[in-house]
Amino acid sequence: MYQVVPGGAGGTVTNATPIKQKLKRDARPLVVASVLGLVLVIAAVTAWCYYIGSLRKAELLKTELLDLNKDGYIIRNQAGAIVFRMSFRSGTLDLDSCSKEGEILSCGRTSDRKLKFFIQTVFDNTVQCYRVRWEELVPSLPVEHAMTYNVSHWYGGAETAIQHWPISISGQQAPKPFVTSDIYSNRNGFGGILERYWLSSNATAIKINDSVPFHLGWNDTEKTMYFQARYHDTPYKPNPGEAPCAELSYRVCVGLDVTSIHKYMVRRYFNKPNKVPSKAMFRHPIWSTWALHKTDIDQEKLLKFAANIRKHGFNCSHLELDDRYTNRYGEFDFDLAKFPNATAMFQKLKTDGFLVSLWTHPFVNYDSENFHTCVERGLFVREPTGRLPALVSWWNGIGGILDFTNPEARDWFASHLRSLRSKYGVSSFKLDAGETNYLPWQFSTKIPLRDPSTFTRRYTEMAIPYNERAELRSGYQSQNISCFFRPIDRDSVWGYELGLKSLIPTVLTISILGYQFILPDMIGGNAYLNRTDGERTLPDRELYIRWLELSAFMPSMQFSIPPWEYDNEVVEIARKYTAIHESIVAPRVLELAGEVLDTGDPIIRPLWWIATGDETAYKIDSQFLIGDDLMVAPVLEPGKQERDIYLPAGHWRSYKGERFDIKEPLHLTDYPVDLDEIAYFVWV
Predict the structure, then answer these.
(1) DSSP string across 204-251
(2) Mean pLDDT within 589-617
(3) Distance, CA of 552 to CA of 639 (rounded, Å)
(4) What's the distance, CA 327 to chain centroid?
(5) What is the DSSP letter of 491?
(6) Is the pTM of this model over 0.90?
(7) Nearest Cα to 384, choosing from 455, 459, 439, 454?
(8) What is the pLDDT, as a whole number, of residue 14?
(9) CA-to-CA distance for 639 and 492, rounded, in angstroms?
(10) What confidence category does residue 12 fall into, taking pLDDT thresholds of 50, 70 and 90?
(11) Can you point out the beta strands (E) in 628-665?
């Protein structure tokens, strides 16, 4: 019999669901599964493409050892450690607008506007440099980047009233113009010697470009320094005809160690002296009338001062006749009431073997006979419209300030200096002031100045004809003026605020900024009223002696308060240290001074210069090196006749004849140093 199999071939199905309806019901799960599978495949492909795109974007945003993100960037050294971190505070980059071509990574937008941004990598042997530029396209918008500084010790920037080594940042400061300032009268400002350069212990350096309207701020809570460019509420100006679109551009360079990266930066980006000043200034002290007599100087006192120098057996590079030998400020003729026969006075000094330099400045007071002449001839810096001369206030009154961008003003000033040299045989000049804080907040000059500190540079150029013995206290891109630079006046106190303890950090800072011919101000300080440690009008005796000992190991020495104002013991100590300076220090310094012309390397060096791997060396602010082979450790505390001394690894012989052959750094605790001694060690 045949068995009927339902749904079989040729068979007949009775009492069953129709075939088409059955198939629909059975196929539904399969379709759903297929759709889900397709969705999963698409999702997987999308995820894979996104992953590949992310990898490509991540690779795009890396350039050598720098990683860029929307909020900033980090830089690593060759070992892979993070050595530099910068955040963007003026916008968030739109990373989709970024592209990379060769060594240049560029972006065209932030999250809300267009801009021009790029980072270019430059590799030079063992040094990796990054050129960074953020340019706004909208006028008056500031650009601000924030550098984290707590991963290392930082040096450089500017002379300050309270000077530490390394830089010590406290409090919060909104970005303010990074321009030269007289920090004696404005103790919160940046100093008269200033450069846009910083160096860190992890072998990183940053140099801000000259074109930037640069402002500097900080926050010690966040451990950041703010680098800002702006054209509003500032003395910076765009070039004539240009829109005030801010640009922050700089280069960050990373090397193998702090010494080598500093050498690299100096050789490429700093001006260098083209000659060494007079050797006599390195060998013999300068004697100034200022701290002793202030403005109460006259012919009789000057001749007596010179006679006492010879009487007590001291050498003299030159006498410095300071403020005030003229009747009014802005004049160049001697005040006949105070100097009745200047010609005879100069002849007498010349016969006795003295050269004389004169104090001068860029101001012409309104009561000077020359004020009207300068107004008529347009020789002054002017108010913003350029129609009227600007009146400025300085420590000796009110007047005009000469516009050293104006060739006629330069010639007028220079002709008076030449006349003094021709008439009296003046050897040189002490050019005081020159800082931009003596300019009006808004001003105009014959040649427009984008950067107010360029005024300082133009003023320092007036010293070039006299740079054998000239003295300047302000400098900006002025290393090639090739004369001695002096830190701002010191108070006759022990501390870090313009006192004895500030001297080494200040000299080290100025040296790092490329100024190597340093005159460390007057021994004992300036003896200003209410700013002097001591029971009399003289600086404290112990302070004076310790200052004298330290100055003997600087490139040049300068007396004003003479040692015979104290007693015979102080006179003998002064003779001892002027002799040490001439016989031990000056020969080394002069040799190094010759090398400066080629290398720009410091004469006075920090201890880390020869101990780049030693964390302790980065923090020492009371010792220094002359070259690589003479280490000096003065006593800087009152009442002390001992001190702790750090000796880098090596072979050293102390001034007492002790020998130290050490493979590791050595700490000498409570090393005895008598009042008439300064500890120093020579590399054997």
Answers:
(1) EEEEE-TTS-EEEEEETTTTEEEEEE-SSSSS--PPTT-----EEEEE
(2) 97
(3) 21
(4) 37
(5) P
(6) yes
(7) 439
(8) 40
(9) 16
(10) very low
(11) 630-633, 642-647, 650-654, 659-662
